[in-house]
Amino acid sequence: MHRRLFPRTLALVALVAAAATAGAPTATAESPTPAATRLNATIDAILADSRLAGAQASVVVKDATTGETVYHRNGDRRLVPASNTKLLTSAAALELLGPGHRFSTEVRTSGARRAGLVSGNLYLRGGGDPTMLAADYDALAAQVAEAGVRVVTGNLVADDTRYDSTRLGPDWTWDDEPYYYAAQVSALTVAPDTDYDAGTVIVHAAPGATAGARPVVTTTPPTRYLKIDNRAETVAGGATSISFERAHGSNTVVVTGQIALGTAPESDWVSVWEPTGYAADVFRSALRRHGVRVLGRTVLGQPTPEGAAEVGRHRSMPLAELMVPFLKLSNNGHAEVLTKEIGRVLSGAGTWSAGLTAISEYVADAGMDTGTLRQRDGSGLSRRNLIPADEFVDLLTAVRDEPWFGTWYAALPVAGEADRFVGGTLRSRMRGTPAAGNVHAKTGSLTGVSGLSGYVTDADGRVLAFSILLNNYLASSVKTLEDQIAIALASYTARSVTGARVAPPAAPDAPRVPEGLECAWVKPNAC
């Protein structure tokens, strides 16, 4: 933990405190100012919305500098936080691994080597990198060829032993398993594009040449690891209704429905069964392209022997950069990889248990009362995660003193900012309001669960830390209620009161997203 306040930071804190208090009426918890009373009444009115009838709502707002409570309702109540859980995981990763932490993927050889012949195995050793693309495996294969390797008499061994072999969170629901936002976790994997959804493939279906023909199905990246069961049909006209479903426990993707002649291809992101084999298939194809023949078979899950000679290496972007796709797009795979990486680095065990223990110890040091919460995974997919809003706000307040805080704050989604890698899951929300370009916060969504936790600067220039957790509602979405609260906070001033009428602020409609999903989990991106 780092608790140093440098001179510039001290000056900023002083300026913010002065702005927040100059000309403002004083108040106590027993005697709030009229402005504070109005703000509380406004938030109360928002939470009285009929969409929350019978639901649970918890909202906590504090001055991030002084710790003064601005609003509090049910802050000690344990609620399911969904992807707000990533606040704990990301903060712990930056502290325990460091902003400069990188993942390495290596290629090594065992046995005798003479000229271009290796009398042994070729090892592809995974280091957990969730950003490995097919192009990176191609570059690794080029390094092997440049090292003079032409023929390997043994096997291609895919070494994923940096982490354990548990691929899915123990509490994740089975019906999420085929979808890319619940992809299997491995230390050796592939992402299909620069959203870096590791362990997934993009499947495309284009119209066939004539009506009645099967659509043309391809994948990104090209791979033989998937089997395509194409039952779809090209039609002369009408609506396109293509569906891609991977059968449980297999890599068979069933394509059904219809696609009209002359229309653009349809695409979807599909998780693979056993991403280690997927990575090995992509790498083996790259080796062939570069003139490297492996005579043996592909073997999964065996460790690289000590002393094996390195013939290729790829290093990931630093963790500080990875925070952007991780938090902006609410990438579940990144959260789980970082959890296992924390466990591996700190205790030598690349497991959920080891990682979560280390995360718990860090957030306890940061001021969270870990006796009041439960964290079961890194991403928030588990419904057994239970975290009070009070504890989120305590974390949000504490980490502002950390040397990596600027990196973390910038990586949070920003309300109303159209660029996906700035606005992230908030880019279509709160546009044209005082919260736009102001609110930096983590979203969270599961069926019947919504959350928004982060920072907002009020009209007096005061930085507020807030957490909004909503559970057990039956409406399709309550995002606009979160937005109304954030807008009210961004508009709040302690200096004056403009009338006694209490009316929740208007919030633009949030994007239409299937119930229980983050907008960034809907491909193509829905936010």
TrEMBL record:
Keywords: Carboxypeptidase, Hydrolase, Protease, Signal. InterPro entries: Beta-lactam/transpept-like (IPR012338), Peptidase_S13 (IPR000667), TAT_signal (IPR006311). PROSITE patterns: TAT. GO terms for molecular function: serine-type carboxypeptidase activity. GO terms for biological process: peptidoglycan metabolic process; proteolysis. Residues 1-29 form the signal peptide. NCBIfam families: PBP4. Belongs to the peptidase S13 family. This is D-alanyl-D-alanine carboxypeptidase / D-alanyl-D-alanine-endopeptidase (Penicillin-binding protein 4). The lineage of its organism: Bacteria, Bacillati, Actinomycetota, Actinomycetes, Micromonosporales.
